């Protein structure tokens, strides 16, 4: 009799809170992850079941599994360690390697810039048993003596699960709404392109401004502190004409600026002070010399973020500063080739005479292909080398 009541209660409880699963496509393949007795909370990116395998965003799970993860940007790998055991997730090869020599292929992918990896294999490897519970559904990893068995787990966690589900649905709804707004805005604005000029201002800025003006194009200038102070009037002019300004530091010297996270911040602060003295404004936009890879490791990135700066890289490299005698045609072709590959191209140019020669053709090409060159706005999310969405 007791069993029957249990089954009845189970029926009601399950039926009610999970009814809307089917209503929302996004939660169709969702699975709740529990480590021992603890429900894992995921933000932004969620576990997913594909072909019967549960994949989880590994960064969110690591603290629950008590493993240490490290992202190696240069090799595009994530290292997962616990004691003397190690797993390497290779994003380029989409494969997983263990220190025992096991290799799993086609099991790693990126979602919202999070590395997704097979949950059961990783949990097993670090000493957890994994069981699947239909209610929820839940995938539970355990390595300890537990207060409840698998059959009671859902009842113990159901309030948390309901709350978690509401939170996730809210997050998804918000994201969908944001995506719709963005799409609408993009449609209205046409195809956006960001043209950026580094290392100025210079004797060429005035010419660049005139050419931009002819094509009704706006750009962003990442400028050096001493140059801002030398070319005061042109800085004011470009701001008045609706272009955007960003900081490029003081020294432009790898050994100096990258000495520590603090030196990057202080070079940008000094540059910002110059901008304020000359033009009466400050900015939060920065581009670090030579781009953020390889020098801007995690502690550097955190430091500039904490200081309120938004660091921008590029995804279209004109290579105009590679050699002194590079021909304008090479620059134009470099840009044309790469612009097509990105949803939101960010073009890197420098204030040089050859670039000035190449600029009209670049702008003509962009105009012909429906691009609208707009200035980078202070509140936008930056586009960086590691940010693959663009
Ligand atoms: Zn530079």
Automatic annotation (TrEMBL):
Keywords: Coiled coil, Signal
Residue intervals of the NodB homology domain: 191-374
Domain of life: Bacteria
Pfam families in UniProt: Cu_amine_oxidN1, Polysacc_deac_1
Protein name: Polysaccharide deacetylase family protein
Species this protein is from: Crassaminicella indica
Stretches assigned to coiled coil: 162-189
Keyword Metal-binding belongs to the record: no
Signal peptide: 1-22
CDD domains: CE4_SmPgdA_like
InterPro entries (alphabetical): Cu_amine_oxidase-like_N, NODB_dom, Polysacc_deacetylase_ArnD
